[in-house]
Amino acid sequence: MKPWIKRSALGVVGLVAAAAATLVAGVQLGERKMQRHIEVAARPVALRSDAASVERGRYLFMSRGCVECHGADGGGKEVVSDGKGLRVVAPNIAPGPRGVVSAYAAADWERTIRHGVKPDGRPLIVMPSEDYNRLTDDDLASVVAFVRQLPPVQGEAAAIELPAVVKALYAAGLMKDSAEKIDHRLPPSTPVPEAVTPAHGAYVANACLGCHGMALQGGKIPGAPPDWPAAARLAPGDGSVMPRYADAQAFTAMLRSGKRPDGSEVSKVMPFISLQAMSDTDVQALYLHLKSLPAPSAGKS
Questions:
Q1: Of 137, 115, 136, 134, which is closest to residue 124 (Cα–Cα)?
Q2: Half-sphere exposure of residue 1, counting CA atoms within 13 Å on the CB side?
Q3: DSSP 135-183
Q4: 113 contacts 132 by C-beta, under 8 angstroms
Q5: pTM for this prediction
Q6: In the prediction, which pLDDT does 299 show?
Q7: How far apart are CA 180 and CA 178, in angstroms?
Q8: Distance between the two ends of the chain, CA-based, in angstroms?
C-alpha cells in the first residue's frame, strides 16, 4: 500500500473514532442533563371544583394543545414514533393510581405546567411548558380543576426514547427542554378581557410558542422528527404566512378546515384537534394580534 493511501486511511479511521467518542460523550452528558435538579419558586395552585372553573378548564384543555398529547380522557398516548429511535409517549394524567398526578401537591401542578419541572426537580423533556408559562392564575387553576375531575383510566405510562444524536445535541444546548426556554422569574400573566382585541390575542398566542418559536419566527420544531416540516413564520418579515389571510374570516377558515385560502392543505403536524376547538373570539383575537406585530427593522427578518 502506498504511504499516502495508508496515511489517508489512518486519518479517516482517526476521524471516525473521534466522532464516535464525541457522540458517546455527548450522549452521557445529555443523559446527565436530563437528570439535573432545577429549583423553581412554585406557588400552590388554587384547587377548585366549581362548575365554572371545570368548564373553563375543559375548554382550555381541548383548545390549548393538552388533548393532542394526553387525549380527551387524559389517559395519554404515543405522540411520536419514527422507527429510528425517537419515541415519545405522553403519560396518563387522569386521577387514580395509574396517573402520574395522583400524588401531586398543589405546588406540583404549577411546577409542572408553568415551569416544565417534575415534582422531584428534574426537567420535563417534551412537555411544552413554554406554551403554558403565561397562563393567568385563574386559567391555570381551571385547567387543574378539569384534570382533577376526570374519571380514572388505565392509560399510558410515559416514555421518552431519544436517538444518540438528539441526546448529544441536547447536551450541547442546540436543543432545549422547556425549563431552559422559560424565564422562571416572570409573574403570571395579568388577566385581560376576553374579547376580539390584539391584547387578548397576545394571550392566546402563548399557545403557539412551542412550535413557532418565542418570537413566532417559525423554523424547525425543536426535538421534532426530521421529516416534520418547519413551523410557519407567523411574525412579519420575509416568508411570513400571514399575508395569505386577508381577514380574520380567512384565517378562521384555515384553522377550522386545515386548508389555506388557495385550497392547499396545511401540514397535519398542526394541532388541528385543538385549533378547531378554539372559540371564534380567541381565533379572531389571535389574528388581530399577529397582524399587529411590528415589522422587523432593516437588516433583520
A1: 115
A2: 8
A3: --HHHHHHHHHHHHTSPP------EEE--HHHHHHHHTTSS--HHHHS-
A4: yes
A5: 0.89
A6: 55
A7: 5
A8: 54
Q: Would you say 66 and 91 are in contact if contact means Cβ atoms under 8 Å apart?
A: no
* CA angle 95–98–101, rounded 5-degree value: 45
Nearest CA to 208 among 293, 118, 296, 301?
Answer: 293
Grid coordinates of 20? 464516535
Strand residue runs (E) in 207-273: none
Query: Quick one: cell of 51?
Result: 362548575
Gap between the Cα atoms of 259 and 244, Å rounded:
12
For the record, the C-alpha cell of 15 comes out as: 476521524
Nearest alpha-carbon partner for 166 in 176, 158, 157:
176
- The three cell numbers locating residue 121: 426537580
Contact between 106 and 187 (Cβ < 8 Å): no
Q: At what angle do helices 248-257 and 280-292 cross, to 10 degrees?
A: 120
**CA distance linking residue 194 with residue 173, whole number of Å:** 37
Show the low-confidence residues of the chain (pLDDT under 70). 1-23, 223, 297-301
Give the count of beta carbons closer than 10 Å to the beta carbon of residue 141. Answer: 21
Q: DSSP label at 123? A: B
DSSP H/E element including 87: strand 87-90
